[in-house]
Design a protein that fits this description.
Two copies of one chain form a homodimer. With about 230 residues, chain A is mostly helical. The first copy, chain A, contains eleven helices and no strands. Chain A is flat, with a radius of gyration of 21 Å. Chain B binds a DNA duplex (30 and 30 nucleotides) through loops. Chains A, B: It comes from Planobispora longispora.
Chain lengths: ~230, ~230
Amino acid sequence: MGETGRRARPGPRRALSEREILDAAMRLLDGGGAEALSVRSVAAELGVAPNALYTYFASKPVLVRALVDDLLGQVGPGTLTPADDDWRGAVTRFALALRETLLAHPGAVPLLLGSGFDGPNALAGGEALLDLLVRAGLPQDTASRASYLIITYILGTVALDAAELPPGVPRPDDAARTAARRGRLAGIPADRFPRTAATADVVAGYNSTEQYLWGLTRLLDGILTGPPGRSTAS
Amino acid sequence: MGETGRRARPGPRRALSEREILDAAMRLLDGGGAEALSVRSVAAELGVAPNALYTYFASKPVLVRALVDDLLGQVGPGTLTPADDDWRGAVTRFALALRETLLAHPGAVPLLLGSGFDGPNALAGGEALLDLLVRAGLPQDTASRASYLIITYILGTVALDAAELPPGVPRPDDAARTAARRGRLAGIPADRFPRTAATADVVAGYNSTEQYLWGLTRLLDGILTGPPGRSTAS
DNA sequence: TACAAACTCTGTACAGCGTACAATTCTGGA
DNA sequence: TCCAGAATTGTACGCTGTACAGAGTTTGTA
């Protein structure tokens, strides 16, 4: 009955699975942020001794990497393979989906940035994005650079956004976020930061989906502006 | 002799200063990355009991915030106030200076992203960038959005870059970085990631200054492309 | 059917972490 | 001179990741 295909070795049956551990870890992460995720808390959540987890993951960093990559794998799989030729729409859908997935688990974002963006699912996402840009007609090298530019923008935005989301509570919607930020911005001294104070209404919306799309649009415009036949600019 | 202006209260003289503590902390950060920075290690570095530091900083997170903002304050102060009207050049200089400062202390980058981008020096930097864009002729709201877009790009790039820099050793130059990455990329399966494999030469240079400037150029192009008279695009 | 090898899990332990608390020492102002 | 207040230390608590030894369970093989 080798369910996984490779169960032909001695030893008692496993009481857990990687899946259960990752789910428990994500639950803790969502409930209390990155610092609520400890080997001991995960073990307690699963009713097991702390060191039992070392059967499944060699160390905490390894667990965290798996957790982060697992999360990246949850980005809608079909988001990047559109049938039509609306590549800007496809990139936009991908950017929205990736941001949404990450912001649904803000505690995972610092872990992602600390663990690196490698891992199979990260690679697969990069490949899919790159493939889309090439199929859109961009020269291969330009597409490669552009895909990194886009990833960079998404992760930078999400990082700044997640950094100010308190753990344990559901993310408020854009209007509430902006209103709260607007209130806080009322406290900044207009004599020392006149420009910032003058545009406080815009600054308050930095974390909104609308600003996110504004930036993405500028980005894609800029990518199209570049000399299409060359791989380097200026 | 009120040196700091506010020394008119009883108690023994302080054996340390915020400056010394921040310097020691940065030394440890540079030597061993974020996990080498502990209250106890900083105290040991200064030859003092761990809890002595609590006279100067209320908690470790407070210390880290101060450290990060102090680092941001080290970005060349004049970088953003050019006399000429070459605003793209000024933004580029700023982007290069900020990246250089952060990558000189890669261990600080995860701390920055975990602590948020507020703090006086972060605010001042944002104000200066915003001011530059407004003086460049961008409408106020567009300038505000653009400044966030630029910051987002810089921090995203730096985050991905710093995540793969090992702590304790000086950062190799671009050529060495790219060569090392190129070698590692040779190991990725071309059948599962054909596009990535095909552009491995470009991918290897993702962390280079050249790619950084390519992306920044696209970004600024895109900002200029947008409808200049309106504050929202779509 | 017995056994040895392989495997999973637990109990215990260690070094390190952030920091709270009480005691000690030092200082300037009244 | 004395006291109020500030700086520092020693001690301690609960937490962390994880190494190690042992016990229990399962398997293929003899």
